[in-house]
């Protein structure tokens, strides 16, 4: 007797997430908003984080209007600002929110439309790297012990890193990780995503080696665009021309709502293991499936160099031993 094929992943029918709390960065728009909506609809409590109070409030109101009995709250967090990251993490650790546990973090926030000229943060870090990768390296470190304390026999907390299919388009080995030699907007984006993917893979290996009961998983959304995404007041309001222009890309594109499905599956599907990489079946669109990261981001030497560089740039090391100890490992 042959086994029946598993049912397709349906974002509208997720495994019950009641009693769990997730933090989503960049949750006020795009992928972060729709990932949050899917989690909330499954019963999770979601902490919406972002750097704009007004946009966070709009996302909060939209979720409450679209999802009956939505359990959400907001957290000011600018992932390009180390001080903001540490303050936000301290708020979560300090129990200022409604829930005393943290079951997962979706490291989603980032810059897609990169600046033409190289820009730096107030502490001198290249802006795209700081926003897409380095800030999340710091945030994951700051929240590691909080995540580890939520581990149980039935649940292993997760951090999900937002990669990109564009990393397959070339080697893009980030030797000059801050692009101090020659900056190009496209390279800044692709390199930052190589860094993200390398960190996600390396993090999972180090978590396993240290005996920390937290998983690190990678996901990418394919080619998800606003003009093919449902209108949500204050969150996604594309004009008529954008609808037409994005509609012409239907054969290769999908909505941000569908793109968010890969991220959410990587966060909550119990069949997924740490270190895996998930994205749309047809690379740019489709149901979430397991895939392979680019050779560069999975190269052990590249991963080690990137991890050590991020430690140096951030001035911090992940508290693996303490996280394992607090989890009782």
TrEMBL record:
One of its GO terms (molecular function) is 3-beta-hydroxysteroid 3-dehydrogenase (NADP+) activity. Residues 278-302 are annotated as: Disordered. Its EC number is 1.1.1.270. Pathway: Steroid biosynthesis; zymosterol biosynthesis; zymosterol from lanosterol: step 5/6. Gene3D superfamilies: NAD(P)-binding Rossmann-like Domain. InterPro entries: Ergosterol_Biosynth_ERG27 (IPR051593), NAD(P)-bd_dom_sf (IPR036291), SDR_fam (IPR002347). Pfam families: adh_short. This is 3beta-hydroxysteroid 3-dehydrogenase. It comes from Microbacterium betulae.
């Amino acid at each position: 007797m042959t086994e029946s094929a598993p049912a397709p992943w349906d974002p509208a029918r997720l495994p019950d997430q009641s009693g769990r709390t997730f933090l989503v960065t960049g949750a006020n728009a795009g992928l972060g908003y729709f990932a949050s909506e899917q989690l909330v609809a499954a019963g999770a409590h979601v902490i919406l984080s972002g750097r704009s109070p007004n946009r966070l409030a709009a996302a909060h109101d939209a979720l409450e209007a679209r999802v009956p009995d939505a359990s959400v709250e907001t957290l000011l967090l600018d992932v390009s600002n180390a001080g903001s990251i540490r303050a936000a993490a301290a708020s979560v650790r300090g129990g200022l929110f409604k829930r005393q546990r943290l079951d997962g973090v979706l490291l989603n926030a980032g810059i897609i439309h990169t600046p033409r000229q190289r820009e730096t943060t107030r502490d001198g870090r290249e802006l795209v790297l700081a926003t897409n990768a380095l800030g999340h390296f710091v945030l994951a470190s700051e929240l590691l012990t909080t995540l580890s304390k939520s581990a149980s026999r039935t649940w292993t907390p997760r951090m999900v890193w937002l990669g990109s299919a564009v990393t397959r388009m070339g080697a893009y080995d980030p030797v000059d990780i801050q692009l101090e030699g020659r900056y190009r907007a496209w390279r800044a984006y692709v390199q930052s995503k190589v860094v993200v993917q390398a960190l996600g893979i390396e993090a999972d290996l180090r978590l396993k080696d240290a005996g920390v009961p937290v998983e690190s998983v990678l996901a990418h959304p394919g080619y998800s665009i606003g003009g093919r995404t449902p209108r949500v007041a204050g969150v996604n309001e594309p004009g008529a021309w954008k609808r037409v222009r994005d509609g012409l890309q239907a054969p290769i594109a999908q909505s941000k709502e569908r793109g968010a499905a890969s991220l959410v599956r990587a966060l909550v599907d119990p069949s997924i293991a740490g270190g895996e990489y998930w994205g749309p079946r047809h690379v740019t669109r489709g149901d979430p499936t397991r895939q392979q990261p680019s050779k560069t981001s999975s190269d052990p030497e590249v991963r080690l160099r990137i991890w050590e560089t991020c430690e140096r740039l951030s001035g911090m090391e992940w508290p693996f031993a303490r996280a394992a100890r607090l989890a009782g490992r």
